[in-house]
Amino acid sequence: MRRKAGLVLLALAVFFAALSPLLRWYAFPRLAKIPANQYQDMVLEAKDATLLDYGTMKARKVSKVTIVQTLKGNVEASEKIEKTAGKDVVVWDGLSYVVGPDGKMVSKIPERYIFDAHTQEPVHATGEMVDGDPVKRQGIEFKWPFLTEKRDYEYFDAQARITAPIHYKGTQNFRGVEVYYFEQTIPWTKVRFPKTMPVEGITPESVAKTGTTRWYTTVRKFWVEPLTGAPVYGEEIHKEELRGGTLLGDRDKVTAFAGHVKMREDYIASTVDLVKSNRALVLLLTSYLPWGFLALGLLLLALSLYLEARSRRPGDPEPTKDTEPEPVSA
């Protein structure tokens, strides 16, 4: 019986030992993915900012500029793209809506971001756009891959429609969560005017006729939780200028917007809580279960060897052999 039990334990030990790397390196990359129906919003603020008054065409100091960013999963569009892409695809319909201190719209820029649900790599398909203009993204946007590495990544800038490196700058602790800090600088770049302008009757086409151009630079900062690849906090030191043309009169340039954009406190707290809960799920698949199964396999192996040794323990009486009865002599 001991030998049979030992063989059963040995089989279980091999099973759990083999399941450990299988779960980590095969199951996890296939199970970890962004849900297609995810919805999230974020409010950012730039306090004591500079904002252009389009009525006077002069820059003025304002108490606050608010940016509301929303990302809504488009399940119908993702299912349609998956039929030809042959992979799990997520489609995010995004909107960046900027309002001044008086609550009036400054700009609104819609986006459609299409990416691989597992790797977060862009997937190029009809409908990929920024502010109605077709784009072909290279690099990530909004979210880093699961198990983010300590290295530079390519990050897509929606304002400039370009991809540039975002640099890993070190590991930090942000409100009890270990994060990787990334930073990207976009130098002064000529960019397009938003299709929706803050003043009725003014269009990008009418502004272009004046010869005035729009320029933009930013320093983008993200604190990313590496297991989930989710930013727990973000900032931008953002500047925009209008340059040249008859719209500015005798001026060479005027500030359209300048401010240090930061996440609002209540959204920081909710984001950190959400990332912590998702982090536990990733740890379960990448660490807790694989290491637990490996430890269980080693324990079962040790128990199997122990039972085998017990079954062969020295000093146990040898089993008696059946012998033929000897003939009785008269």
TrEMBL record:
InterPro entries to which the protein is assigned, alphabetical: PorA
Keyword tags: Membrane, Transmembrane, Transmembrane helix
TM region positions: 288-307
Top-level division of the source organism's lineage: Bacteria
Keyword Membrane: yes
Pfam families: PorA
Name used for this protein in its record: DUF3068 domain-containing protein
Lineage start: Bacteria, Bacillati, Actinomycetota, Actinomycetes, Kitasatosporales
